[in-house]
Give the backbone structure.
Amino acid sequence: MKGSASGRPIVAAMNLLSRRWILRIIWELRDGAIGFRDLQARCEKMSPDTLSTRLNELKVAGIVENNGQGHWQLSSLGHAMEPALVELNSWSESWAKQLVKESN
């Protein structure tokens, strides 16, 4: 399995998802197709080269696709990741509140 010397899918997935900007791009595409420049703006104006590289990596992985009209969107495989990301978002909000509470 590409991205994992052990051949374990979870290792390959974690390798891909841990790359800078990957999760942010997926998160921004969760609500539907968006053009390159708008996606770049939503991602804190990351460099066009970086965005292009990450979109290519996600496309090769089957997580995003270009809709043929210059817009990027999650593929069906990408959409299948949404429940896990929503759960992670919920956990991160609870975690942040706990950290604030502990620092006071």
